[in-house]
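Margin note from the TA: students keep mixing up input and output lines. Inputs are the sequences; the output is the structure of the whole complex. Example:
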Amino acid sequence: MFSPARFFETGAAPIVAPEQAVNPQTDPLIWFLQTFITLFVIMNVVLVTMAYQTWAERKVIARMQLRHGPNQTGPMGLLQPIADAVKMLGKEFVVPREADKPVFMIAPIMSFIPAVAAFAIIPWGDARSEGLLGGWIRPAIANLNIGILYMLALSSVGVYGIIMAGYSSGNKYSMLGALRSSGQVVSYELTLGISLIGVLIQSGTLNLNDIVRQQQASIWFIFPQFFGFVVFLISGIAETNRNPFDLPEAESELVAGFHLEYSGMSFGLFYLAEYISMNAIAALAAILFFGGWAPPFDIVPFTLIPGPIWLFLKFAFFLFLYYWIRSTLPRFRYDQLMGLAWKVLFPIALANLVITAVVKLIGVHMGWWV
Amino acid sequence: MVEQVVLIVAGALALVSALGVVIMPNAVYSALMLLLNLVSLATLFLMLHAQFMFAAQLVVYAGAILVLFLFVVTLLNPQGENILRDKRRLQQAGTISMGLFMGCLLVGALLYAFTNGNQPVLAASVTSPNSTYGTVEDFGKALFTQFLLPFELTSLLLLVALIGAVVLGKRK
């Protein structure tokens, strides 16, 4: 018997206890329509955010370097992302003679899908509430019980796009870029995962919405999990191949790395994937360590602002941090990059994990922890 | 209804991709087919309410082990090492007959399971809305109580493998 509400919360004790459930949708057809509309809205928001984020990035970096940035297309250059998109769509898609054609065609898609899929579980409001328009736009596409694991699974599948692109291009720069990149992504994925386990122990749940609710009830996890947060942030930057860890595409050494041979919209998909996974990491940082959609204090001026705006503000802060780091720091050397992951971040994350676990164990025994 | 459609699609993909792993002439394609196979299996786990297994399948197999495979295969890039084009006739005949034998065994076992054995039906304790079957909590509890010894032995085995890798790597 198919019950829509349980489809994504497979097999687990439902997050929404029956008596708390707001408007439980039992009609499969309406449930699908609602999911479709939610998906449509969220995907559009994600893509438009991504487009204007490139504009914001160019503006912010330009200001930091005492330039003006894009200012010709539209007022303040606001139409620049649209012009870029049209240019990208209009360009020819060239397949190199040496390329392994099927893999070459699939690689951008394999890179794009995991990046976008991460947004399926980002709650932009309390996932126990009904959402907007009487449930037609839900607060999260899927309120998954294994939220963090799902994120880790996506980030580990995301590396395939890079390897496939590097291999199939038939170009030594691409291959070298892909090798570097996959080494980097696999290493930093480990530190990313271990830094998240601290939050997991602290909150006792993998569900992103429940993690936010826990922070609302206690304090933001950046305070007890500060070292975890630092490791998460650095690993997140490295995981998305952003500066100063953008070795896969180091233009002075590798021309453009794994996406060297791609043109037109197939390059566009890599570009989209990079920025969207950067957005996902920023949103995840906001949710796991900065209270997500919850206002910082449960008193009147803060609670008047709705949850999605809080999430967006925190998210924007992290994006600004990304730009700031990008325009400040030079690129790492490859051995320094690996050294940072294995000799600095890994021990810190592990120590953080052990200390959190011990404190929680003592806390539970002493009755501090409920 | 929806669950059945997903089940059939994922099952068919798992079968086709498993065949593809063996048949594909290019080792890179075989590895990619294996990826498809692992993802379909993960979907099947999800349909069987084993959500932790779903995530673990993706993180461990698709995310770590297969990446390593793909690394090795793309670097060595063995072209066209197809079993049917192998020159060693005896080895070829042996491989094919062994494969056929195993295939017959598999088909026989499946036929037996579908005709004589009990039909696999998910227990009510698994499908009920309040069931905790297959969740991370349940899985963790089982791993650290009922299956503690095999779990710890496995970690010991992995540790030995790790040390072995370090020793072998250092020697060169």
